[in-house]
Amino acid sequence: MAGQQWAVGARGGFLTNIKLSKKLREVAQPMMRFRGLVRPEMEFGKNVGDTLQFDKVGNVATEGRVISETETVPETNFTISKDTIVAKEYSNSVPFTWQVELFADLDIRSTIINALKNDMAKVLDKAAGQQFVATDLKYAPTGTETAKTSTITTNGTKSAATRNISVWDLKNIADEMRSTYKMPFYTTNDFMSVASTGALRGIKDDSEFVEATKYGDPDKLFSGECTRFYGVRFVEESNFLTSNGTGGLGEAVFFGEDPVVEIAVYPEEVQSKIGVDFGRDRAIRWVWVGGFKITWDFSTDGDARIFHLVSS
Fold first, then answer.
1. CB neighbourhood size of 257 (10 A)
2. Whose C-alpha in 106, 170, 224, 268 is 20 to 30 A from the C-alpha of 234?
3. Could you tell me the pLDDT band of residue 215, with boundaries at 50, 70 and 90?
């Protein structure tokens, strides 16, 4: 056909411009859970330096005992140890030119701010998570699915996991937390666990778990909480913990009350750069000044609040 055609630009295709959607699509974000489970130190803030020191009180050296009527009451003592958190500046920025803002059909500033807010949430959640896995107590599921064994280390050294977590391991960890290490519950009667999708799959695929969950779904108290079993509330996470350990094994942490302390000197904020070159050079950044620190170190304190289930 010699007439006008849409498929040929000069014969008809040039009669319109490509339409730009007004909706900006954003990349999917991971599930971030650690930041909401730390203990903020509310009395720390601006103009008090960059370091918080906190005391940890140990048990008495000698337990009490039965005494006779005329016997002198025994005496004992306890030790106090100190630990510190140092605040650091966390930040990231996106520079842009005056012309980008001048010519762009869509709002460049709101686009940058949304991207930076997502980055800030992920970075600070990972910073908190790094303290959870800094615990000295490591649990490795070993053996095979039909002949399960486990390895616990108390000096921060990881043993190699050879299979995914199961209900058998969950019970081992919870029992150790209750009996051996006497960890206080995170809630009234439950411990907490932040677990990767891969680790949760190992538990959910266990026939014992499947049978137990037929009889009800308890109230959920925490964002992202997916189940409760054997006195442990589980929260699923995909920002920091791995589901891709050797052989596709998952990773998790189990913890009781007061696992990690947070200090904040300067709260989360999005700031605009003061323009240079007559305002042609622009930028937006996020900033937070603070820090996270695991509360109890078993190697030095003889106490712990966190178990780290390793994946490799």
1. 14
2. 268
3. low
CATH fourth-level superfamily of 34-57+81-130+261-294: Major capsid protein gp5 (3.30.2400.10)
pTM over 0.85: yes
E strand segments, the chain: 39-40, 51-60, 78-86, 88-97, 138-143, 148-153, 191-196, 225-229, 232-237, 252-255, 260-272, 281-294, 306-309
Q: Which residues lie below 8 Å from residue 270, measured CB to CB, with a gap of 6+?
A: 113, 116, 117, 284, 285, 286
CATH number for region 135-260+305-309: 3.30.2320
Q: How far is CA 73 from the centre of its chain?
A: 48
116: which 2 tokens?
């930076």
Residues 106, 24: Cα–Cα separation, whole Å: 9
Per-residue exposure over 29-57, b if at least 16 CB sit within 10 Å of its own CB, e if not: eebbbbbebbeebeebeeeeeeebeeeee
DSSP helix/strand/coil, 103: helix
The CA angle 230-232-236, to the nearest 5 degrees, is: 130
What pLDDT digit, counting tens, does each position of 20-62 carry? 888 888 888 889 999 999 999 988 988 999 999 999 998 899 9
